[in-house]
């Protein structure tokens, strides 16, 4: 992508990655992604805010050249992960003498991960500033969005906040700014669910700080920029809160349809009781879609057949991932079928020590469900409905 002008002397110089479909060899990218980097030309100093993924570093360097950048004084690194830092060594080669400006923890990680020599750094602590001449950058530490070294950079006079990954979205789009909020909402929620959710308790104070700054533009490293910051700030306020919705996620696999019949019974009964049901067949599921539904759901039900003595591996995988994501789920249950025995319940609960949910009565049966098993599933639906009613959700 060519450079795009944000304001006079401020440019977006990163690029979309339209084709990438997997991040960290784990996270699906149905809409591609972008690696945003920004060039700021102050009256005395020129600075690059973040780099890009090393696979597209040639585009970043071309963009700097096309803008006539002959000297780069500073490269601010808000986050050491390689999709932003990976191009920094090449930028340093192209602009010898430029310094990497970041906090001490980020500098240490950049030394470890991409071998930037220690003498290349200018270190800044929380709230310290850097003059560009007519403009001033200020740095705010914001650890664990989503690594421990992360920070924000604030261009004071222009009221632009560069937040690194925070508030971003894996979305390749030609829009420099968010233009379709409904679409970006889903992409940003997916990004939050997959990457940020485990650290949600740290975020309210970051949101407070951003709101108190009076930000006009939020420039993240992934996805379109926000020129209506309240859109994404309000969304994050909702997602990071302890509030859950009247939603039940049913994540299931069935091999010979016994568990499938059980899941169908539970789904229908829950709908009859007035609950919203989000169903994910874990055979070939986009795990990001499950993660999105876990952001808000009050209840999750794992439904699995027994493979050997434990849950189906697809269910175990999803439960393991959910445990990493630490959703605010309040209630959980396990249903499923076995052929001759097993420890599915114990194994699934053991995989979810991070999820502080109250476990409701399991329904784990031998073989294909009988009348009394469907009755047990209806009682479980009643129990879930009661819990949702007590929580004021229904
Ligand atoms: Fe976009 Fe955590 O890197």
Report on this structure.
The chain has 394 residues and is α/β, with parallel strands linked by helices. It folds into two domains: 4-240, Ribonuclease Z/Hydroxyacylglutathione hydrolase-like (Metallo-beta-lactamase, Chain A); 245-385, Flavodoxin domain (Rossmann fold). Helices cover 34% and strands 25% of the residues. It contains twelve helices and 23 strands. The longest helix is centred in the C-terminal third of the chain and has 20 residues, at 371-390. The model has no long low-confidence stretch (mean pLDDT 97). MU-OXO-diiron binds next to helix 2.
List the helices and strands and how they pair.
Layout: E1 4-7, E2 10-12, E3 15-17, E4 22-23, E5 27-28, E6 33-35, E7 38-41, E8 46-49, H1 57-66, E9 74-76, H2 82-85, H3 88-94, E10 99-102, H4 104-114, E11 121-123, E12 129-131, E13 136-141, E14 151-155, E15 160-164, H5 181-196, H6 203-213, E16 217-220, H7 230-240, E17 245-252, H8 258-272, E18 276-281, H9 287-294, E19 297-307, E20 310-311, H10 313-325, E21 331-338, H11 344-350, E22 358-359, E23 363-366, H12 371-390
Parallel strand pairs: 8-9, 9-10, 10-11, 15-16, 17-18, 17-19, 19-21, 21-22, 21-23
Antiparallel strand pairs: 1-2, 2-7, 3-6, 4-5, 7-8, 12-13, 13-14, 14-15, 19-20
Helix pairs in contact: 5-7, 5-9, 6-7, 8-12
Bound molecules: MU-OXO-diiron (FEO).
